[in-house]
Fold each of these.
Amino acid sequence: VLDGDGSLEVGRVAAIDEAEAGDLTFLANPKYASKLSGTRATAVIVHDDVSDAPCAMLRSPNPYLTFAESVAVLTPDPPPEPGISAQAAIDETAHIGADASVGAFVVVGAGTRVGARAVLAPHVVIGRGVTIGDDCVFHAHVSVRDGVAIGSRVVLQNGVVIGSDGFGFARRTDGSHQKIPQVGTVAVEDDVEVGAGSTVDRPAVGETRIGAGTKIDNLVQVGHGTRIGKRVLIAALSGIGGSTLIDDDVTLAGQVGVVGHLRIGRGVVAMAKSGITKDVAPGSRIAGFPARDVDEWLQGQALVRRLSDLGRLVADLTARLGALESRLK
Amino acid sequence: VLDGDGSLEVGRVAAIDEAEAGDLTFLANPKYASKLSGTRATAVIVHDDVSDAPCAMLRSPNPYLTFAESVAVLTPDPPPEPGISAQAAIDETAHIGADASVGAFVVVGAGTRVGARAVLAPHVVIGRGVTIGDDCVFHAHVSVRDGVAIGSRVVLQNGVVIGSDGFGFARRTDGSHQKIPQVGTVAVEDDVEVGAGSTVDRPAVGETRIGAGTKIDNLVQVGHGTRIGKRVLIAALSGIGGSTLIDDDVTLAGQVGVVGHLRIGRGVVAMAKSGITKDVAPGSRIAGFPARDVDEWLQGQALVRRLSDLGRLVADLTARLGALESRLK
Amino acid sequence: VLDGDGSLEVGRVAAIDEAEAGDLTFLANPKYASKLSGTRATAVIVHDDVSDAPCAMLRSPNPYLTFAESVAVLTPDPPPEPGISAQAAIDETAHIGADASVGAFVVVGAGTRVGARAVLAPHVVIGRGVTIGDDCVFHAHVSVRDGVAIGSRVVLQNGVVIGSDGFGFARRTDGSHQKIPQVGTVAVEDDVEVGAGSTVDRPAVGETRIGAGTKIDNLVQVGHGTRIGKRVLIAALSGIGGSTLIDDDVTLAGQVGVVGHLRIGRGVVAMAKSGITKDVAPGSRIAGFPARDVDEWLQGQALVRRLSDLGRLVADLTARLGALESRLK
């Protein structure tokens, strides 16, 4: 709902404290509500329940989502021009879809199929026998190894690795390590985004899978044979051990670690730096290491902070009880 | 020892719950023993003490190792065809060994020597004066900087960096930081494997060293001047500070941190997320931050979980002692 | 101040326990003082208050800084020869400064300006509309995305990514995630160094900024819209959430995590593995998760280690009080 002059024109999006006349801004995080009165923006996207602003208001039940849609309209990111660079090395048995844009020094291996309107930035390396859906965007220095299957509308940020060998070794009698050949594969479903420098390993047998609509941040490690459900969010520097099952709609905050061979139930939320060592029931909110219920963990932390008080109390009780015992002896 | 029809043929390896007729599977982790009765595999590799399976059994004292060997036989990974891509940039003073496979856009610097049967995937960049042994496999986007020495049968997964500058700065009087030129080198011994995106820094003086047979997982940081022994295992997202000595046969689980200038004794095992701040005696099993004996740490964690009980007990004692004191006043 | 034979010649720098005749070494970390008497170096840089060594002494109030300067003199790193590789792909509208060295397979996009004496190692990819100052060194496989602004004397180690999309998604009513287009930019000021594999994201609006003289180690994640001040040090595997403000002269040790939307005051020092969840006052020294004053945290850790003693004491008090109560009943 627009509240204000409907004929106003905005040409740019900006942060609430950096916006100038002609800019559209937004207020999604209530933490910043105090900044609203001072904004110089021409219009602001606010939550339905905001009543007053120094500029036109565009009310929305989900200001962040409305903002996302507005940015896409105001600052469209023009796709690179279609065409295959003369400096790319595309195997003659590979198929590149219509209207794809393939940059300089891209390598595409034998038998690989890339869908329509793909953007392969310079220095993307795709192995042999890979399948890639339509409308994917792979940024510079992405590696996709042999045999991986990738859906449509998948975005891989710079330096992402899909299909590297899992960390699988068997110990020999002499203590040395025998590599387990990692001949399984990786499947990345539709609408997945993977952040810069993240790595997704392939397993010895079977597959590693990233479910549709899952978004992974930078420098995240996904172990071999792990299956991640749909619409999962994983923040930066988290690591998921091998053969773990992460159900739909799970959220892992930054620097979370998940041991291998676990099952994390649907909708679980793990706070930053959680270390998950056991299966987690659906809907749980967890924190700490070993991770447990977040309220229990917060209470435990508060009690640890009061440990010196407890120690003093016990010392006082000891003295008083001793005095009483002496008197009554 | 084969227990079953010796004329059975298997053509593929598969996970125990995904195997079909014609597949070979394995049971190494006792956690999955219950899956054995339901497998549809034609044959299963099991531990010597397993007595019954719904298919042929191949018994082994080390099923995981036998599985590793079976995979290598059943699904041999054909090496890329030997030859040097016309699109590679090999310095004329570099030497590439017999039967090597050098992909598109590979760069090899002046005076570098690469051993026989090396596989340098597309987009590998090797600096000047590097030596590389026989039978190495470097995946796409690996960087090896000037002067590094690498042994034989070394595997570097995608995006690995060997020989980047260590994080060495001296503070000037004005609070700014003067870079210490990192003119030392890195030595990687035989049979090492390094996971995708991991980085091994070079020091100001001397060398950083990774011992023979050591295996490093993805996104691991090895600091400048650190020496890692033989057959060490380091899991994902761990970081080792500079000038630290990690002895043979150490295991570091995921997201472990080791402060610089320490000595970690032979055979130490550090649990996930350990933060190691002091020297560790050989054979220790440690956990937590600051890391200490794993049993002590587990006991401490259990006591923290019971802190609210302890608090209630102390409150109860306080009340009872107060009542007694009043009565006796 | 030189103490010893002023005509001595040294030709190499070496670690104190590896130095041979003809080498210059240094003693900066008092932990290694015991190694001084055994060194075979020809000369050693020591702190002003060191009185005795088995070789010539070069005394300095800051031995590490003097060492840094000595290394630069003794082992000058010859810059690569100027020139642009015939195998680079430089857009015709890009400008490369005088005496720059541009390696094989480098990509520079339309409208980008690179300053004088830049070293762009092989496989560096620079987007469109980027500005880069003078005397920068970018190692192999660096990615700099469209529109980023980089100052002078900036060093980017291998595989660094500047300007990847921030992790910004708005939740739709059906639980799926709408990407917020990340159309802001990144500014990296003069004299910054970023370690191998680290990533700096661009925001939806405004900019991410790294202040002058800041040094970032390997595998560090800097979130979108975060502003880092001047002379900040950030060690390996740390992650900074989005929209956080890190003031000048802050030090974050390894594997530190900082939640988004915080302000970390000037000169704060955070110990390894700290998890910072609230604003931090200038000058604070913090540790733990949630991070708090380092002395409080150390005391808390010590108390946890004595929890079993406290438990035994409370059990003893309970028994004694019960006995007293029975007697007096």
Note: The helical segments of chain A are 63-74, 294-305, 307-328.
Amino acid sequence: MFEVKETDLAGRIGRLRTKGGTLETPALLPVIHPYRQEVEAGLVKELGFEAVMTNAYLAYKHYGPELLEKGIHKAIGFDGVVMTDSGGYQVLEYGDIDITPEEVVRIEEGMGSDLAVLLDRPTGLTRDRAEAEWTVSETIGLAKRSLKVIRRRDIVWVAPVQGGVFEDLVKLSAREALDLGFEMLALGSPTEVMESYRFDMLVRMVMAAKSVSPFGPFHLFGAGHPLTIPLAVAMGCDTFDSASYILYAKDGRYMTDWGTVRLEELNYLPCSCPVCSKGLEELMEMDEEERVRNLAIHNLYVLKKEVEATKEALSEGRLWEYLMLKARAHPRLYQAVKLLSDYVDMLEDGTPSFKPRALFFFDELDYGRPEVVRHRRRLNWMRKREKLILALGTGERPFYGSKVHREILKALGDRAGEFQISFILPPFGVVPVEVSDVYPLSQNEAPEGYLEETAKLLIPSIREYVESGGFSKVLVLDTGSGGEFLSAISSALKAELVDLKGLAQA
Amino acid sequence: MFEVKETDLAGRIGRLRTKGGTLETPALLPVIHPYRQEVEAGLVKELGFEAVMTNAYLAYKHYGPELLEKGIHKAIGFDGVVMTDSGGYQVLEYGDIDITPEEVVRIEEGMGSDLAVLLDRPTGLTRDRAEAEWTVSETIGLAKRSLKVIRRRDIVWVAPVQGGVFEDLVKLSAREALDLGFEMLALGSPTEVMESYRFDMLVRMVMAAKSVSPFGPFHLFGAGHPLTIPLAVAMGCDTFDSASYILYAKDGRYMTDWGTVRLEELNYLPCSCPVCSKGLEELMEMDEEERVRNLAIHNLYVLKKEVEATKEALSEGRLWEYLMLKARAHPRLYQAVKLLSDYVDMLEDGTPSFKPRALFFFDELDYGRPEVVRHRRRLNWMRKREKLILALGTGERPFYGSKVHREILKALGDRAGEFQISFILPPFGVVPVEVSDVYPLSQNEAPEGYLEETAKLLIPSIREYVESGGFSKVLVLDTGSGGEFLSAISSALKAELVDLKGLAQA
């Protein structure tokens, strides 16, 4: 049902097979109102969206039993993959609704949804643990009841995961859903989290669920903001739905690559979509209804572009770089992406060992990058010799073939075999010369001054390498540059600082 | 001739009046070949470019004397502002050309250029100082000869500035041009700098020229890369020309917001322009000529979007934030934008004292932001009292009305008048409570942990404030949080760490 083609961080490009067609993921599913469409479903398809989300409950309430004959695709006018939500969100918004989980299954089967979400009991953002526990146990109960009446196996059934801000409850909810046999999960309730820019909470919630369900397809409810898309993808969300394009449009908000701006506050249109080529003046002069429609179409263009840009970054193996760059659009997002380093094990799995391009490093954030953490871990497996020589890495790569390496070998002469020669390279820490041509140790670029500016993170990792190595002697080589840093290092290691001449006599 | 409407950093939105129309700046002028146009000039105009650059020398060589009757606008088919380059760049590329500065003036006047660049002698990237000096003195000599024969005063004459990587020569060249009475300057030779991603060199060259000519309109030759546009604008370049859209297209390179990718290496099209809506497959299947044309049009869309996004950021007062975000696309750009802090005086002039939105802070880069440096300088003018109390700033803004301020006043009682109460707030340093509601001291947002993570830059600025204040007593208030940081501060200042109870007795 779900096949992964490429990965980077915890993100993946995959193919999700449904009876309505195969959907390439990650995919954003615009939310389509079942009968009141400001942007008609056909146009949404033309804009490049292969799948949409609509509401089974509202559709059935409106169309009645004839929907079951007509089918949801014809009813909403979308010739592609249709995912239906159960109506659980309406419970959160309007209190109880008069529908049972059995009825939801019956109408979703009847209307022929391609992906169908079970009825659930959303947790929302409550801080009341007892209440959250109740919604999780209710959601599990509803899933069990749903399971009993499911007949159509050609539909991808999606089990909602609840628990809100309680990570252990999110994990419990996800585990129970998997145990019931559901392959695709959907994390509920993050809409409010995202509306309040609590991206850190979003990271914790998603990573809790993904820690339980790292492999199967994973849906995130309501991630339709240009800043949440790369974050959601990097965490391994495969599909996400959002009504943001139309909700923002109705509120007069124009999406950009970095967020939203009120249309009347804009002076320029930073976009090349057909709507924006009409110009700001024409947009402002439209009547309300036409402007909302045009804004919504523009917003869809921005979202589509963001999904494609994220997929391209993933496919080029620079999803980390892209995400860190987007993070500088808002301090809350910046704070959230820093949290990703806490989940580096989960990110490392998907990060390829080889990429067709050099890694770019910029600042301290990059010390938490999976490739860097992976290198440090690998260091422990490497054979170490009796004595250690540490030298500053230079621009000559690989270090194996560098001038300074040749000079060290020459100075050591017959004693070269006694020494482990290793180079210092931020943010990796220590690079033993034997592996210095292994990707990405020679394929990376950082700004000048990176060593000095991130020394406080670099020194501890060097110390750890030296201490775990149990060398009988540690020499720090002074070749004339990086004096201040080398002094700091040799004093931190209580190691002797020697020049090439000193090395010959050491 | 040139009117500035809005400013941010050293950048400005302005109106440049020419006989061919008023041009809103900053503006990118696509380079149009005088008679071989892969993308016809009319379409360039339709894409939203109000002005183009073409080559007077090549145009005249091709069309001959009839060009002087027809006029350059008709000849190239562009109904807008036409800037003509003199041919100086051809000297650099092909050696001497057989044209005199007098002839260049004559043909530019004859063909009716709206903006006309004088003949010059480009320095290029030579490291040979004597050679660079020679090109500068030649360029000045050519400008003097040009000046003598200029008759048409309705043309904006643009004086080239040379000097290459020698900043003093760039300054000399700019000063001489201004002394001759030219109002608009154009910095030559950065194309090679940009092609080799030496953005740091670009910063030094532009800022050298701008230090001499901060007010008049300023042209930068060849800045047509999505990463150089915001940088050029932030430094105060008003116009820039580039043939990159077509040169890259001929080389099969597709522009993105972050750089360029070879078309055959792309998997997705991160763009919403009409070309990209055709899809990658259709682009790949086109014949060479059609593909080059389509790529070139796409590249123009990307460049246009970048100019608009930069102008929008400038107009919202977040050009700094936008530039720092773009800087994370390439380590060389990151390195270059850091250099901007060396020119903070030049950036501060244009940075408004009030902006309609909160400032966003992220990391150490923001310690060099003009608003931050400005605040630190203003601190020196403020009246100081005999004794100082330093407290950690909290989320309650302004500090004036915060709980901790009320508690301090209560603890001090009658002695409040003796104390200067100041709050610690990164990246500003110290905020005296009296000015704590002055923009942007209450209007800013930073990620959690910003104080601890940038402490090494924060502590020296606090120390400077304390030392220059000559206080008879300095107390650091411990309200229970930020313990480690407060200990570091009190020991750096040799100040007493007290709690509220201690304050009542102090």
Note: The longest strand of chain A covers residues 11-18.
